Amino acid sequence: MHCPFCRHTDSRVVDSRTSDDGAQIRRRRQCPDCGRRFTTIETAGLTVLKRSGASEPFSRAKVLAGVRKACQGRPVTEDQLAVLAQRVEEGVRAAGNAEVDAHEVGMAILGPLRELDEVAYLRFASVYQAFESLEDFESAITLLRAEREAAAPDGRPDRIPAP
Fold it and tell me: What sequence ranges are listed for the domain ATP-cone (predicted)?
């Protein structure tokens, strides 16, 4: 690390702290030549490898844009979408890879989106799981129903009680 004041090629780390929920490391450094102190912020880069072979930095905004399209017309708030995008990023980073396939990012969206809104989940899944027929939709809906019924304590799907 070059000193920003005298351009000396070395520096000594005086203090290190994590910030931004552990996604960044803030380091306080001191130049051994001029003695001045400065701060650096280090982040771990996450690159997305696209189908075309190109790679680009991971973008939470792109996740939001894709999920927003799937949730269009659904009762989902911007705050819920922001939390979903954060969960997706944390999940992708937790895998520990510096480079991740774009398809894996899409698949990482499915779980949190399913919890948020089942209709939006089906919209999104139809693209990322490459639904090709009505049977694909039917099997996905059947699976959703079966899991919902299994999760209900009385064995029935969640229903609004009659007045």
Answer: 46-136
Mark whether 78 and 18 lie in a shared domain: no
CA separation for the pair 30, 22 (Å, rounded): 23
Same-domain pairing of 33 and 85: no
The pLDDT, as a whole number, for residue 48 is 93
d(CA 113, CA 115): 5
Q: How far is CA 85 from CA 105, 121, 124, 155, 161, in A?
A: 11, 14, 14, 32, 33
Residues with pLDDT less than 50, the chain: 157, 159-163
Q: Are residues 79 and 27 in the same domain?
A: no
Q: Where in the sequence is the domain holding 110, given as residue range(s)?
A: 47-150
Amino acid at 65: A
What pLDDT was estimated at residue 22?
65
pTM equals 0.66
Asked whether residue 87 is domain-assigned, the answer is: yes
